[in-house]
């Protein structure tokens, strides 16, 4: 770097601090206080020093445990020398949280900063996360942030034309993004002075300023006296206009004013640490369950408040979200922390799940108790007929089925009684099937399965009879189960007797074989060469074995449902897959129980799809992405799809694979492999592997996946809806006879466009009105009419490709429904 160089180096004083990693959150809590104190000391000692800090959760800890220091921070923020960035609750993993989780990070993080400091973050800031999904530009913009700073993927992992660029998401949203040229810390890498000089040369070559981050990091610490003395010496040599104590805010403000010509990148920012999307199955499954349960609790808490005045549990649900957001921190969600940290995460997820369960139960039972189920023959309640049921005579017992989703669903309901008949609220008999219960109570070990059709975000009453025969019309095409096959009107699934693999999946609608070879094959991958993160790797495809030695047997044989259980083994591990086929659909659900005893190995399930010119798509937060079919290990959410050309035809077909809590997969040519489990050492960064190490994911785990063969594109096959239906089950509440103001069937929402999904319905944060969040799922612009009958409100408008819309519905019916951003503030024009 010479005196002739003109570009600025913006020096960003920061303290990267993982609240959990090789330590538990309690140690992170203490370190945050010490680091913040150190930063305040530097601000007092060096009048030009500026400190940059993200993560609302950290400020909350200071506020509750060191109020005097919190007051001092507020003064420094007002002064402009303590700069708030990030705008999120924590620095999360940026691939695995749902779209709504990212919305909540912004909602709760930015509103906290606004409430406590009178400001919000302008710069998204996630310097340590391992990858960044392609929908982040829209999520950032709609959370009040126009800029983004990150570090990974680094240059050797993803080549970018420049480290400064416009980052654009599928909907067209753009943020100005900057990738750090190297570390956010002075704890490793080039000596600090050399780092600054090297960045100066880069800036001069690029023709625009760069940012250089400094400060001791990972376990906190931040800028040191030595750091600032080095900076002072360089300023004396090169000038204060060249070497600037700065912040990301100042950097981007200057760049925005200068308007440099920079490239536009429309892509995800991947890949780093490919193993993080399959480590620690329990926390990933808990994350999925907690996200959905909180959303379901919000929806029915809202309905119970609107219809019946039940107080909305705003603060409790917010606490549930705060726990989930904290556990989405990249070293927890990414599965690379110590074993003790995951015990803490289990407790925290448990609290969120229980909070949501209590809120959901209170709302559902207030609603169900208020439904008019009275019958003229009933004068008072009495359990004379059966110890489990309030049924009088042959009048039946009401079972209220709630649907949290924003479209009508046809779903199987497992009622924990043995019934002779079931009718809907209109008295129409519905087919039933006697199924095994989860209890073994003398002869009382049977339950009843029936199909329910339930309105969107609403409920419906079904009447269940202990002894009355209801004589439904016979199913035209019942399910049949044989020793090695399942079949309904849509598909036939055949199994190899000794391996348990699917030998054939015939789509009877097109008379086509879905697979080009054995399907649902459990393959064992060697991963001794991988650390916990999967650093330096691109794929996991070192095949070393298969589960086999299978036992195949029929558990249920229709008419509504057939189940074939396949139990196979590998070494000391056992894989049990229950293949479930219902009469009404072509989808095959698979309930999996895995007893995993392998070390430094990975289990994948293989599905070779019989198509040519294959394309792979998968869900990302509030969107989707197409990826190359090159065998790379990549993150996905609730679904992946492999589609292609039908051989000797111009038609297209494919297979979607849905899951209830798995987040990694690969596709090589036409073969999709869903990653089920890996067993690296806890927090192993290619360390010394002695006999004291402990391995992840040993023992039992359960999850569900589904196979959905389809004709045409995934967009036209309802794949997004089917994935939600797998992950968001109906809720059933047994009731009795009572008068009430509510009807026996209620529709909560009506959306005219099939590709628009409503993901959230909640009370507004300022307690004035309701928030409805929707997004476009197919990548196609749409006109939509959205009605909320319980509020007597209607909205009409346009959705762009992959657009997220947040609608505010004021309590005052005289005020219009209007669009707001993710923070529930007026949307930018």
From TrEMBL:
Pfam family, one: Glyco_hydro_38C
Protein name: Alpha-mannosidase
Signal peptide (from-to): none
CDD domains: GH38N_AMII_ER_cytosolic
Similarity annotation: Belongs to the glycosyl hydrolase 38 family.
Keywords: Glycosidase, Hydrolase, Metal-binding
Location of the Glycoside hydrolase family 38 central domain: 272-349
InterPro entries, A to Z: Gal_mutarotase_sf_dom (IPR011013), GH38_C (IPR041147), Glyco_hydro/deAcase_b/a-brl (IPR011330), Glyco_hydro_38_C (IPR011682), Glyco_hydro_38_cen (IPR015341), Glyco_hydro_38_cen_sf (IPR037094), Glyco_hydro_38_N (IPR000602), Glyco_hydro_38_N_sf (IPR027291)
């Amino acid at each position: 770097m010479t005196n002739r160089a003109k570009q600025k180096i913006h020096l960003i004083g920061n303290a990267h601090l993982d609240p959990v990693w090789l330590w538990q959150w309690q140690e992170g809590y203490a370190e945050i206080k010490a680091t913040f104190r150190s930063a305040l000391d530097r601000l007092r000692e060096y009048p030009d020093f500026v400190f940059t800090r993200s993560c609302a959760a950290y400020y909350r800890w200071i506020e509750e445990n060191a109020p005097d220091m919190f007051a001092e921070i507020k003064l420094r923020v007002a002064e402009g020398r303590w700069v708030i960035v990030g705008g999120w609750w924590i620095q999360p993993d940026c691939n695995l949280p749902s779209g709504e989780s990212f919305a909540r990070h912004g909602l709760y993080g930015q509103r906290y900063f606004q409430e406590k400091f009178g400001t919000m973050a302008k710069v998204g800031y996630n310097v340590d996360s391992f990858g960044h999904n392609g929908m982040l530009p829209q999520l950032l913009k709609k959370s009040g942030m126009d800029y983004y700073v990150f570090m990974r993927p680094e240059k050797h992992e993803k080549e970018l034309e420049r480290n400064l660029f416009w980052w654009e998401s599928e909907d067209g949203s753009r943020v100005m993004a900057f990738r750090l040229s190297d570390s956010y810390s002075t704890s490793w890498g080039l000596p600090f002075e050399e780092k600054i000089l090297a960045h100066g040369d880069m800036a001069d070559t690029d023709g625009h300023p760069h940012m250089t981050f400094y400060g001791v990091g990972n376990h906190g610490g931040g800028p040191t006296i030595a750091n600032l003395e080095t900076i002072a010496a360089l300023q004396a040599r090169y000038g204060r206009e060249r070497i600037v104590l700065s912040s990301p805010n100042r950097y981007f403000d200057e760049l925005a004013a200068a308007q440099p010509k920079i490239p536009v990148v429309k892509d995800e920012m991947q890949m780093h640490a490919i193993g993080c999307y399959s480590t620690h199955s329990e926390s990933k499954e808990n994350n999925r369950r907690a996200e959905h349960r909180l959303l379901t609790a919000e929806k029915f808490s809202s309905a119970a408040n609107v219809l019946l005045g039940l107080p909305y549990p705003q603060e409790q649900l917010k606490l549930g979200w705060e726990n989930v957001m904290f556990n989405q921190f990249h070293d927890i969600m990414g599965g690379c922390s110590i074993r003790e940290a995951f015990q803490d995460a289990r407790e925290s997820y448990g609290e969120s799940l229980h909070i949501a369960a209590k809120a959901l139960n209170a709302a559902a039972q207030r609603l169900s108790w208020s439904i008019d189920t009275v019958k003229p023959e009933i004068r008072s309640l009495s359990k004379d007929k059966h110890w489990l049921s309030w049924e009088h005579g042959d009048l039946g017992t009401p079972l209220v089925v709630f649907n949290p989703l924003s479209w009508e669903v046809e779903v199987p309901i497992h009622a924990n009684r043995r019934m002779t008949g079931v009718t809907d609220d209109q008295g129409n008999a519905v087919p039933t099937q006697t199924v095994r219960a989860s209890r073994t109570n003398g002869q009382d070990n049977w339950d009843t399965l029936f199909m329910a059709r339930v309105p969107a975000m609403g409920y419906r009453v079904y009447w269940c009879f202990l002894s009355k025969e209801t004589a439904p019309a016979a199913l035209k095409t019942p399910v049949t189960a044989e020793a090695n096959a399942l079949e309904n009107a849509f598909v036939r699934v055949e199994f190899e007797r000794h391996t348990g693999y699917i030998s054939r999946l015939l789509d009877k609608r097109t008379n086509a074989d879905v697979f080009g070879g054995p399907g649902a094959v459990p393959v064992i991958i060697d991963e001794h060469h991988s650390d916990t993160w999967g650093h330096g790797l691109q794929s996991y495809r070192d095949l070393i074995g298969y589960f086999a030695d299978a036992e195949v047997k029929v558990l249920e044989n229709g008419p509504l449902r057939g189940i074939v259980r396949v139990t196979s083994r590998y070494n000391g591990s056992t894989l049990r897959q229950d293949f479930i086929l219902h009469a009404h659909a072509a989808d095959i659900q698979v309930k999996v129980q895995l007893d995993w005893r392998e070390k430094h190995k990975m289990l994948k399930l293989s599905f070779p799809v019989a198509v040519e010119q294959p394309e792979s798509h998968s869900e990302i937060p509030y969107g989707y992405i197409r990826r190359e079919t090159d065998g790379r290990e990549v993150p996905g959410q609730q679904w992946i799809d492999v589609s292609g050309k039908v051989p000797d035809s111009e038609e297209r077909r494919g297979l979607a694979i849905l899951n209830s809590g798995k987040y990694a997969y690969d596709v090589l040519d036409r073969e999709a492999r869903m990653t089920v489990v890996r067993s690296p050492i806890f927090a192993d960064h290619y360390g010394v592997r002695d006999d004291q190490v402990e391995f992840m994911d040993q023992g039992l785990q359960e999850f569900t996946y589904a196979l959905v063969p389809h004709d045409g594109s995934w967009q036209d096959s309802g794949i997004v809806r089917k994935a939600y239906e797998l992950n968001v089950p109906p809720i059933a509440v047994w009731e009795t006879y009572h008068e009430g103001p509510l009807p026996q069937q209620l529709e909560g929402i009506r959306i005219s466009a099939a590709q628009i999904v409503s993901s959230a319905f909640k009370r507004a944060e300022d307690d004035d009105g309701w928030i409805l969040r929707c997004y476009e799922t197919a990548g196609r612009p749409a006109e939509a009419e959205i009605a909320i009958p319980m509020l007597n409100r209607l909205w009409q408008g346009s959705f762009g490709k992959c657009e997220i819309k947040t609608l505010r519905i004021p309590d005052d019916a005289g005020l219009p429904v209007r669009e707001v951003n993710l923070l529930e503030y007026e949307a930018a024009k």
